[in-house]
Amino acid sequence: MPSNFLTIIPARGGSKGVPRKNIRMLGGKPLIAYTIEAARASRFADNLICSTDDPEIAEVAKGFGCEIPFLRPPELASDTAKAIDVLKHAIGFMESLRKCEFTEVIYLEPPSPFRKAEDIDACVELFREKNPDSAVSVYEASHFHPAYMKKIENGLLAPYCMEEPEGFPRQLYEPKSYLRNGAVYVFRRDLILQGVLYGKAIVPYVMPWERSICIDDMLDWYAAEAVLKMNQEAGLSSSLKQGSL
Question: CA-CA-CA-CA torsion for 74, 185, 99, 61, nearest 10 degrees?
Fold first, then answer.
């Protein structure tokens, strides 16, 4: 399936849960650098740009090899701005700049630092194979299964949408539940311009938990630091074992 990808990294300056998180240092480099490096190593993430309203974020992203063709208008960087409007703006600007028409959009959110180039490529390959409206990365969310969700009715807890099995380990709850992790999205350009982001036919790309952390608040940030430390220690241990052979 012929494709002409536009790859967009959205990074506004006004993050609230972790102030300035897109350029906050994680493991010795800015958070946004992890996403840029994964995109640059991908086989499919062509026409890589960062859509930001913030000059400092723009300079940092540019320093790691990401193109900054514009600064995003302030009205598209507010707390209420919608992703689809950010995408429409970027598509319109880049198609006018490049004198071309893209077919698909790869959308990579910086708060997901542990996605790999292989995840981007696998999600794109799934999109090409299935030909859906969109492809979205997810992870199995057994800790957040809908059976755990409750509402309060007349002062009592009641199931939110389904009964919780009694005496059953959560690993066996069916059907399995999944959460979007913000790591990789592949959208159709024509649907975006029609005001449709995901569409009805959405194929999932399932990722493991350790690559699915999405940083929304400081607790997530500390979890990311812990995973990074775990990965570094595992890499050091592997190197020492290889050196001893």
Answer: 60
Q: Where are the alpha helices (DSSP H) in 64-162?
A: 83-98, 117-130
What domains can you pick out in the chain, each with its CATH number? Answer: 5-141+177-243 (3.90.550.10)
Q: Is 72's pLDDT higher than 70? A: yes
Inform me whether the pLDDT recorded for 245 exceeds 70.
no
For residue 173, which of 162, 158, 189 has the smallest C-alpha distance?
162
Residue 171: φ, ψ to 5°: -65, -20
pTM of the complete model: 0.89
Mean pLDDT, rounded, for 126-146: 92
Q: Note the pLDDT of residue 148.
A: 79
Of residues 52, 47, 56, the one with CA closest to residue 24: 56
User: What H or E segment, with its residue span, contains residue 242?
Assistant: helix 218-243
**Residue scoring higher pLDDT (173 or 44):** 44
CB under 8 Å, gap of 24 or more: what pairs does 25-34 form? Answer: 26/113, 26/221, 26/224, 26/225, 26/228, 27/225, 27/228, 27/232, 30/60, 30/64, 31/110, 31/111, 31/113, 31/215, 32/57, 32/60, 32/61, 32/64, 32/110, 33/60, 33/64, 34/110, 34/113, 34/114
